[in-house]
Amino acid sequence: DTGVSQDPRHKITKRGQNVTFRCDPISEHNRLYWYRQTLGQGPEFLTYFQNEAQLEKSRLLSDRFSAERPKGSFSTLEIQRTEQGDSAMYLCASSSGNQETQYFGPGTRLLVL
Amino acid sequence: AQSVTQLGSHVSVSEGALVLLRCNYSSSVPPYLFWYVQYPNQGLQLLLKYTSAATLVKGINGFEAEFKKSETSFHLTKPSAHMSDAAEYFCAVTPTLNSNSGYALNFGKGTSLLVTP
Fold first, then answer.
1. Do the beta carbons of residue B39 and residue B87 sit within 8 Å?
2. What is the pLDDT of residues A60-105, one digit of tens each?
């Protein structure tokens, strides 16, 4: 069990550019979650996958955001035409079966200049 | 939607003193409740969770929390603070399993714990 990993850990981009983050959940965890955490705030739920199916998207996930989990393993979160307001820590978490405990990755910190 | 409120964005205690971090939840049915800790530039680590079993829950690093339905509270305590406890602490709530959102968590705004020598 190597834990949840995220790549990259840090990303600096210019406004208007596209960025993509990757999350590798704990092996065989079928549930995967993305959260966003802005400075001084708690994480906010963005989207949820059960296996490869994206079952829930928060209203925070604007049309510029898209997430995939093509084979039910790793997941990607893409932000198109980034804005300064997208600057945040993006956290991924996974869990298995009917277990309610989520295990978090270290996060990807995005800074949009 | 279920939510949690953490009272006190910053708490300062002396090393060796009692730690008390407050969390109140809003829910019409008993939820699942969690405390997570976050060290600088890191992800979240689970301290403990309440899932309708014992109301007094013991977690890692000497922390514990008590679920009090009458007060809708789930406060986190530790008898004696260590310098290494300095971090951000988050209370979170989720309803029972939802077919669409799984166990998506609603977090409080966090409490920053400072431990002074």
1. yes
2. 888 999 999 998 899 999 999 999 999 999 999 999 877 778 999 9
Contact list, A105 vs chain B (CB under 8 Å):
43
Three-class SS of chain A: CCCCEEECCEEEECCCCCEEEEEECCCCCCEEEEEEECCCCCCEEEEEEECCEEEEECCCCCCCEEEECCCCCCEEEEECCCCHHHCEEEEEEEECCCCCCCEECCCEEEEEC
Cα(A107)–Cα(A82) distance, integer angstroms: 18
Which residues in chain A have Cβ-Cβ distances shorter than 8 Å to B36? Answer: 104
- At B56, the amino acid letter reads L
- Residue in A21, A24, A30, A100 to test binding to B, most B beta-carbons within 10 Å: A100
Cα gap B94→B108, rounded to integer Å: 12
Give the pLDDT confidence of B1-21 residue by residue, as tens digits: 678 999 999 999 999 999 999
Q: How many CA atoms lie within 13 A of A28 on its CB side?
A: 5
